[in-house]
Amino acid sequence: MDKFNFNNRPNAARIELTKNSALSDIDTEVVLQFLNFQWAYRGMQRQYDAVLTQHHLTESRFIILMFLSEATDQQLLPSEIADQLGATRATVSKLLRGMAADGWVQKRASETDKRATYMQLTPTGKATLDAFLPANFAAVKTLFGQLTPDELKTFASLLNKINQGTSNLKTEMES
């Protein structure tokens, strides 16, 4: 059997052979569009990651800077950041240590609970965020700017359906 990589995506004929051997009744067009969506997303994410890298950011670090910039007193508990980010506390702790080493955040003791330590956005972190935001919006405009308002509404509707399918798959896998 031939070996294929992601750059050699299957065509309809290859999908048809594979689905027949797997005894699946899935519509070949569904599989093709799933692969096209994955391909487009991965390419878009690679390019967006390159924009982030130019500013010495990762997506998670950028999101944390945004959370902190919008928070009261520009500070949050690490557990709040983890919950908002949808990441483990260990992962967020590692991210925050790196961001503190870069001077973007600093620890701040709670004035009301001596056990609690907040992470606060520093002026350097705010400057990093402010310097990145124009590049962020320019990248988003380049990626999505050619879509008309009607196409954006259709796209939003389709994404909602994909999100529902993702939720359904999660439920199926948990049962």
UniProtKB/TrEMBL annotation:
The keyword Cytoplasm does not apply. Coiled coil: none annotated. GO terms for biological process: response to stress. SMART domains: HTH_MARR. One of its GO terms (molecular function) is DNA-binding transcription factor activity. This is MarR family transcriptional regulator. It comes from the Bacteria. The keyword Ribonucleoprotein does not apply. InterPro entries: ArsR-like_HTH, HTH_MarR-typ, MarR/SlyA-like, Tscrpt_reg_MarR-type_CS, WH-like_DNA-bd_sf, WH_DNA-bd_sf. Residues 27-164 form the HTH marR-type domain. Keywords: DNA-binding, Transcription, Transcription regulation.
